[in-house]
Amino acid sequence: MLDVSTLWSLQGQLFLLLAAGAVVRKMNLIDEGGKAALTNIVLYVTLPCSILLSFMMEVDHSLLSHLLIMFLISVGVQVFSFVLSKLHYRNIEESKRNVLRYGLLVSNSGFMGVPIAGLLFGPLGYVYASMYLIPHRVMMWSAGLALFGDPNQSFGDRMKKVAIHPCMVAVYLGFLLMFTSFPLPSFITKTLSSLGNSTTALSMLLIGSLLAEPGQNLFHTDRNLIHFTFLRLLVIPLASFLVCRMIGIDPIITGVGVILAAMPGGSTTVILASKYGSDTAYASKLVIFSTVLSLLSIPLWGMVL
Fold it and tell me: For residues 280 and 94, what is the distance between their CA atoms, to the nearest angstrom?
């Protein structure tokens, strides 16, 4: 069973980083130019490093069939999330619609999901979670990124921009390194690790600074945010759980797939909203509201699994 105190420790770390970002903004240490610079650093430097690191794993051939099943579960979750994103939020303004749809596609599986999977299922949890993240990363930087593209551009131009985005380039290089088992020099991996591990802190500082903007009401939510959180924390993991149980998938693989599907909205929702002119305040509320409610939902899923 999940140690709830450990979960709250992870959540507490997130909220302290948010508070630090808010304080920094209130002290005017981050102005408009600073927010733009911070967004670019995360989007074009630290995130690509983090993505590349997530692919650098040794594939245990004795677990190959289980890893393949985990991969297919993740693909299924991404497809289901994509369908949900297409079916919902058609009649609201575009800046909020893109935020909500991206939030359905992209969860906080990397920062929160991997350690929680390890706590619940031991070393195998970490291995399976690393495999789960591969389709998740691909979806994040393909269909997810396309949501924030310029609607006045042709579809081909938008797809070209997505294809050559640094985060997608990191995905290509990650697949190459994973399948060739090409060893990188230690100084390169250490550099990637130093940069990639700063992504969460920088993202939370940025979100906190956005929440501290004058006129923002953090505690004002609407029915779309409530509806989003219901889909993100309950419907998506429940569908994963029922399908896995119906076809008799191994309990540990099922558990990892479900717990990662149950994560709240990812912080990159705010990063991309800020970069591409969507509603950053709404994106910040989406991340925080779903993260707060996950304090209740994730322990419940831990008990079920």
Answer: 13
Among 279, 40, 285, 281, residue whose Cα is nearest residue 147: 279
Is residue 233 a contact partner of residue 290, using CB atoms and an 8 Å limit? yes
Residue whose pair of structure tokens reads 């610079």 in the numeric block = 37
**CA 83 from centre of chain:** 18
Domain that holds residue 232: 4-304
C-alpha span between 233 and 241 (Å, rounded): 12
- Rounded distance, CA 281 to CA 273, Å? 9
Six-digit token pair at 88?
Answer: 């919902």
- Encode pLDDT of 43-76 as tens digits: 788 878 877 887 776 666 667 788 889 999 999 9
The answer to whether the predicted template modeling score (pTM) of the entire model surpasses 0.85 is no
At 126 the three-state DSSP class reads helix
The tally of domains found in the chain comes to: 1
Cβ-count burial 114-125 (b if 16+ within 10 Å, e if not): bbbbbbbbeebb
d(CA 53, CA 35): 26
Tokens of 246: 């119906």
Q: What are 90-107's pLDDT values in tens digits?
A: 888 888 898 999 999 988
For the chain, the maximum distance between any two Cα atoms, rounded to a whole number of angstroms, is 56
Strands (E), 164-203: none
What single string gives the DSSP state of each residue in 163-214? HTSHHHHHHHHHHHHHHHTPPPPHHHHHHHHHHHTTHHHHHHHHHHHHHTST
CA atoms within a 13 Å half-sphere pointing along the CA-CB vector of 141: 23
- C-alpha closest to that of 293 among 11, 5, 10, 1: 11
- Tens of pLDDT along 186-203? 899 999 989 988 877 887
